[in-house]
Design goal:
The protein is mostly helical and 184 residues long. The protein contains eight helices and no strands.
Length: 184
């Protein structure tokens, strides 16, 4: 925590159904951050990949949590580094989840574009797979339903006109039968 920063644990995540994947991601990130079991697993993976064997130089950069949140944001939203940079600097919800959103009257922390690229790209495919395994494990534990509970789904569909013949395999057999019948 820094003076004037809004605590991650107090982040209000919107719960409206039509608000896309971002609130779900933020709710999961918040829960991972405040739950020691999941927090430790995530930081263990991040530390082994990013900070192991490196000395602290005192250069400005990003902390492990910010790298984790931005990498998950990029994967979840399938966005470019330009869009990620914009979100990191201007999206209040994401900034609060990263722990950089300041209260009124305090100077706003800004990320450097190249800093985001350099740090988020440190997470290679293997590390992302390890992190995703922890996130899936987290999801199963947090959102686990009772075994006897019925699965209720909602779906949306539409009709598209197409030229489909039923049954296709019968049509093929019928054509083959006629070819052989010509030679009999």
């Amino acid at each position: 925590m820094a003076l004037g920063r809004l605590p991650i644990s107090e982040t209000e995540v919107p719960t409206k159904k039509r608000s896309g994947a971002l609130p779900g991601l933020c709710a999961a990130m918040k829960e991972i951050f405040i739950t020691p079991k999941w927090n430790e697993k995530v930081f263990e993976i991040l530390e082994s990949k990013i900070t192991e064997g490196k000395k602290r130089t005192g250069r400005p950069g990003m902390d492990l949590w910010q790298i984790f949140v931005l990498s998950q944001m990029r994967l979840c939203q399938n966005i470019s580094y330009d869009e990620l940079h914009h979100i990191a600097d201007y999206d209040t919800l994401m900034r609060q989840i990263m722990g950089v959103e300041s209260g009124f009257g305090y100077e706003k922390y800004k990320f450097e574009y190249q800093n985001i690229i350099d740090n988020v790209s440190l997470l290679d495919d293997e590390t992302v797979k390890q992190l995703n395994h922890v996130i899936v494990e987290f999801g199963h534990e947090v959102f686990k339903k009772k075994e006897a509970a019925a699965l209720c789904l909602e779906t949306d569909s539409f009709v598209v006109e197409s030229n489909v013949h039923f049954p296709t395999d019968y049509n093929l057999l019928w054509g083959r039968h006629h070819r052989y019948a010509d030679y009999a």
